[in-house]
Write a structure and sequence with these properties.
Elements (H helix, E strand, L loop, with lengths): L2 E5 L2 E4 L4 E8 L7 E7 L6 E7 L5 E3 L7 E6 L4 E6 L8 E7 L7 E2 L2 E2 L6 E2 L3 E6 L1
Parallel strand pairs: 2-13
Antiparallel strand pairs: 1-3, 3-8, 4-5, 4-9, 5-6, 7-8, 9-12, 9-13, 10-11
Length: 129
């Protein structure tokens, strides 16, 4: 069974940066996707970014474009999310997750939410003024 563990969350001021890390194991297939999601208090969970290991392509939701970026090390089985120019609306619990067999859901370079099968427990991020 797949397992994912997030780390790196914390509290920062507006305009600051954080780097989140996801360590994964137990993936069943050679080709897979890893996505970052977040859920703010009182709001629905939303997708942030997604990366495919077969070609290294990464995709982002609109709020993350130009501020967030994914990096990875497939040998170490890690996927990081670098978050810059943080805003109060970025405050949320951030999760990494993977689907059992699907990739990322992208339409005209826009990343859409999709069901995932395995989730980490999340790491909280708070951005304050």
């Amino acid at each position: 069974e797949a397992h994912l563990v997030e780390s790196g969350g914390g509290s920062v001021q507006v305009g600051g940066s954080l780097r989140l890390s996801c360590v994964f194991s137990g993936f069943a297939f050679d080709d897979f996707a890893v996505g970052w999601f977040r859920q703010a208090p009182g709001k629905e969970r939303e997708v942030v970014s997604c990366v495919l290991n077969n070609d290294g392509n990464s995709y982002y939701a609109e709020p993350a474009k130009d501020r967030f970026s994914i990096s990875y090390n497939w040998h170490k089985k890690t996927v990081d999310l670098q978050m810059n120019s943080l805003k109060p609306e970025d405050t949320a619990v951030y999760y990494c997750a993977t689907p059992q067999t699907r990739g990322c859901t992208v339409v005209r370079e826009t990343l859409f939410y999709q069901a995932m099968d395995y989730w980490g427990k999340g790491t909280p991020v708070t951005v304050s003024s």
